[in-house]
Amino acid sequence: MAQPSFLHSRWVIAVAGVLMQVALGAVYAWSVFRIPLTRTFGWTISEVTLTFTIAIFVLGLAAFGGGLWMRRSGPRIVALTAGALYGLGVFLASFAGGHLWWLYCSYGLIAGVGLGLGYIVPVATLVKWFPDKRGLITGLAVAGFGAGALITAPIATRLVASVGVLQTFAILGAAYFVAVTSGALFMRNPPDGYQPEGWTPAARRADGHSDSYTLGEAMRSWQWYGLWALLFLNTTAGIAVISQAAPMFQEITSISAARAASVVGVISIANGAGRLMWAWLSDVIGRRLVFLVMFLLQAIAFWLLPSAHGLNAFAALAVLVLLCYGGGFGTMPAFAADYFGAEHVGSIYGLMLTAWGVAGVLGPTLMARLRERSGHYDQGLRWIAGLMLVSAAIPLLVRPPTRPHNGRGVHTD
Fold first, then answer.
1. Predicted confidence band at 409 (pLDDT cuts at 50, 70, 90)?
2. What is the CATH code for 8-190+215-397?
């Protein structure tokens, strides 16, 4: 069949998706706002951190809704709505003043819905355009999200110093709106029957039934919950660090706020790079082995972090954690498509992203509470090291689901 025109080619759509994700991933720069907000309004660490927690929790729920909506209306309208809500939510945060509830509703709730709707669009769309490069393209699709803080952290820090934290929200909100909606204009599904030139799909089953699972069928298999657990545990560890990255750097390595923000931006490269690196590696060695290695590496890194008082040592360990954190998001969409097929991956993986939302509550809250209670981050970091070590058992247990040959129901091994 005829290939799409250049402007509608799969690589142009991929670039647009990455640009969308860079703007959406700016939420990972939240830690640079923590100290300015606590100092300006007298809020506690936990109160400020809750804004980020709400945004990530809502993201997970909205991603599922976005996956279902895409099946009815296509990716473009979902992506445009995402850009409008994300930009609006961050902009409205500039009117928070001393009112926490306004910050929670604007940046947390409204922007969080935009984040979730926007995040699922490139992931679910590009998996259909690239059946021949499933791991690589899903890693690329979310690499921009992981790298968003690289651009935003230093810019936001300079803006806060020059115009104040609230005016910074207004400026960033407008910028996010433009960036996400511009990329959204390129989002579209491939035509029916599309397959990349030179690629042949795997043969259909002998009994004529598709190997693509519906959302209901996937959720009747224990494997869906196994993948959910993998994503949840990996995300809990990384997001606990991301939510406190700037103040954690300042406290443990004794560097300035401006330098800490710069380092946060630099280590965010690892978040983006890990999504691409581990996803590509999973095409070579398998998704299960990738998760096993990531959990073991994080167990070591979290155990060593409290003792790494030198900036270089601490940054190196933080980079390792963020590589693995990003790797979970880069690998899991392909993991889900491997097990349940690409046809319904928007809703199947969209619902799986509730693991991100739950982890977004547990990880940052746990780290903030332990920091307030003990006066340092050591206890929280060592606790997560133990969690990662225990979690390494799960990749050894998960196996692909299988169907009975009569095509009715889902039988799992």
1. very low
2. 1.20.1250.20
pLDDT tens digits for range 363-372? 888 888 888 8
Among the listed residues 9, 54, 52, 7, the one whose alpha carbon sits nearest the alpha carbon of residue 242: 52
CB-CB contact of 350 with 67 (8 Å) = yes
Domain ranges across the chain:
8-190+215-397
For 9-57, how does the pLDDT look when each residue is reduced to its tens digit (9 = 90+)? 888 998 999 899 999 989 988 888 988 999 989 898 889 988 988 998 8
CA distance 410 to 402: 7
> Residue with structure tokens 């230093």?
154
Q: How many whole angstroms separate alpha carbon 292 and alpha carbon 284?
A: 15
CA distance 164 to 330: 35
Other beta carbons within 10 Å of 147: 26
Tell me the C-alpha distance between 185 and 182, whole Å. Answer: 6
N residues, the chain: 413
